[in-house]
Design a protein that fits this description.
The chain is an alpha+beta fold. It has a single domain (about 5-220), classed as Glutaredoxin. The chain contains eight helices and four strands, in the order βαβααααααββα. It has helices at about 20-35, 55-70, 90-100, 110-120, 130-140, 145-150, 155-170, 200-220; strands at about 10-15, 40-45, 180-185, 190. A hairpin with a 4-residue loop joins strand 3 (about 180-185) and strand 4. Helix 5 packs across helix 6 (about 145-150). The radius of gyration is 19 Å and the shape is globular. It starts with 7 loop residues before the first strand and ends in a 6-residue tail after the last helix.
Length: about 230
């Protein structure tokens, strides 16, 4: 059995339509594979504000050109999902991704949100439409469309998205992706806006080492004196 003090938890705060979250997904997948069985991985929706979204396709393309070159991507993201008439209001993909958790064997499953992000930024599909977003998600994970669509529009799911977003802001963060690393011995590291995995891996390694050292010390010397 894994010693309880050796636990490290990583929470990833994301917006489905964030290009920087899209760029961070390979790092997230690599970390989950590298530390499987040793680290807990969770993701939470941190919805962007209307003003955070591009106001036009031209503006979106400019942002995609910037982030794509910064990350040395051989592919350019598709701005076709942008609908200026929505004025930055795109709750559907986040609601569908959150609702899908209730129908998946593993609520931390990434398939639905990845499928939604690819449909938007890879194919230019207008997933601001709730029906379309639910249809894409249902196909990606083999879920019942009607049940998923109904759940995505429920007050319970909306409340969970709002809670995750409030939690994100409670950490005094503004940039997504954001990662909160916490260990059982009280260590905490915060990364906001980084899309590469190397700094996260370095922090996880340090936390695991320190937590294991506490386990080793406890095995040799027990609990501290009461006075």
């Amino acid at each position: 059995m894994k010693p309880p003090l050796a636990v490290v938890k990583v929470t990833y705060y994301l917006e489905v339509l964030s290009s920087w979250c899209h760029w961070a997904e390979p790092a997230w997948a690599e970390l989950k594979a590298r530390y499987a069985g040793r680290v807990e991985f969770h993701w939470k929706i941190a919805a962007m504000n209307p003003g955070d979204f591009p106001a036009s396709r031209a503006q979106c393309d400019w942002f995609y050109q910037r982030s794509g070159t910064v990350l040395r991507s051989p592919l350019r993201l598709n701005s076709g999902w942008v609908e200026p008439e929505r004025q930055g209001v795109y709750p559907a993909p986040n609601l569908v991704a959150e609702a899908a958790r209730d129908f998946l064997a593993d609520p931390e499953d990434d398939r639905v949100r990845l499928a939604l992000a690819h449909a938007a930024m890879g194919e230019g599909q207008k997933i601001g439409d709730l029906d379309l977003a639910a249809a894409i998600a249902a196909r990606a994970a083999g879920l019942d469309f009607e049940k998923l669509r109904h759940a995505a529009d429920s007050a319970a799911v909306k409340a969970r998205v709002e809670a995750g977003t409030a939690e994100f802001h409670g950490h005094r963060l503004s940039q997504r992706p954001a990662f909160i690393l916490e260990s059982a011995i009280g260590d905490k590291a915060v990364f906001s806006g980084l899309a590469r995995g190397e700094p996260l891996a370095a922090a996880i390694d340090a936390m695991l080492a320190d937590a294991q050292a506490y386990v080793s010390f406890a095995a040799h010397f027990g609990s501290p004196p009461a006075t």
